[in-house]
Amino acid sequence: MRFELVCSMTFSGPISQHLEDISKILAEADEDLLKRGVPKGVEGGASVVDVSYGEDEIELKIVSDRYVRAHDAVLRLKKKLSQEMGRKHHVGIRVVEIVSYEVTFNIASEPEEPIKIPFAEGISFDGDMCRLKIGKLTQEQLGKNYVDRMIKRIKEKVDAQFYKGKGEQWNLLWRSEEKEMNWEKDPTLEMEKRGWIAKGPTKGKWFYRPKAAKILRIMERIAIEEVMDPLGFEEVIESMMVPFDTWIDTGHMAGVPNEMYYVSEPITRDPKEWEEFVDHIKISKEVPMELLRKLVSEPKSGICYAQCPVVYWSLKNQTIADESLPLLLYDRTVPSARYESGGRHGIERVDEFHRIEPVYIGTKEQLLDLKEKMIERYRYVFEEILELEWRMAKVDPFYLQQAGSSEDEQDEEGTIDFEAYLPYRGDREESEWLEFQNLSIFKKYTESFNIKSQTKELYSGCSGIGLERWASAFLAQKGIEPEYWPKRFKKYYGESPKGLKLL
What we know:
The protein is an alpha+beta fold. It is 35% helix and 25% strand. The chain contains 17 helices and 24 strands. Strands 7, 10, 15, 18, 19, 20, 21, 23 and 24 form a nine-stranded mixed sheet that branches. Strand 2 and strand 3 (57-64) form a beta hairpin. Helix 1 (19-31) packs across helix 2 and helix 6 packs across helix 16. The protein is elongated. Mean pLDDT is 93; it is low at 398-410.
């Protein structure tokens, strides 16, 4: 890895009388300051290889390696020169500007397609070598590690092309016995025909009338009484609005920005400012979009994608007492919103859905023990109450491959998917099963949100229980006639709602 940077530093006053002092400071920095961070016994670091002087500015050319990157060297020199020159001559550095910056580094393989990223003037490849030419960055952007993140982003994009098509690594862990299926119909279509559900007022949403609504509520009750309560989870209530910085910390903002629903706030509540907007509504019976755009702010938050980010946010920079570990929480109040576009299907793949989100934080040993207990509770529900045909698989999603998770770590941590056979999709071995439950353990989020304990290293995880997914798996196998449902589920369900008849 090689860094070659040219920058200018503009002082707050003339420096022609102080060139000897500046040269001395740069020479001393070359011997010590720009070598800090280099391992003992290793040659390297940053060096100032050329200097030119103006009336109130200097231009530096800096060459460096990975131990002391050139942009870090610039910031070190700026601070040193400001201190020394300010103390002795009462001049400091007012502006730092990047004239040119080129970084050369190794990549996994040469990409097949061109790669573009912000702030780059050019990106070229020669075999496993990348040459990045960086545009003008401010001192603030240098200090915020833009350069390191640009390099990382290029490597991610190269890896994405290299791994394209490999998708998700999937390994079967366990499979139930084959069950007798009650029918082979799509439950969504049948419920819609009978008036149990109706398409919602906007795309990817459903209105659940009494009979369908009760099924979802019974799934919720089973999950709480048979999984959450026995394991000691406690309920929280959270906001459905998630600020962007929280999604940045969890990785959602960079990972799935194309699936978010974004929220804009009114710029003002003053009725006078909205008067023209209201006039248009009353006269045209249509929303004047151009006027609306002027009256709402740019989005700074979005609607809940999953409940766990806000739980982590609530504990950001907090220290959890050891006696409270493992911390077991769940939310069931906030609906989730995900833009599915052409991927929508039935009630199992929608833009708005309802979940219980268990979130757990503790030591690795505590969470691995909890994982086994949760699997047993889920197994009891799926086998004894719902009587499903289902399976468990260890998955290593593509985004985790790109994050560099090792296979050893993923053996104990990572994600388990629970999948159910859907008869209406076809043959067991050839059709796609429905992922209707998962369970994950990671270290990422306690680090991202700086959540600590008194003495222990913390891990975290979640296990979203999608009520529509549970209902889809159950109804696809058991049908929508209560007389054919398993006895234990019918005991939970009780009497069927009267519902309504539409003419």
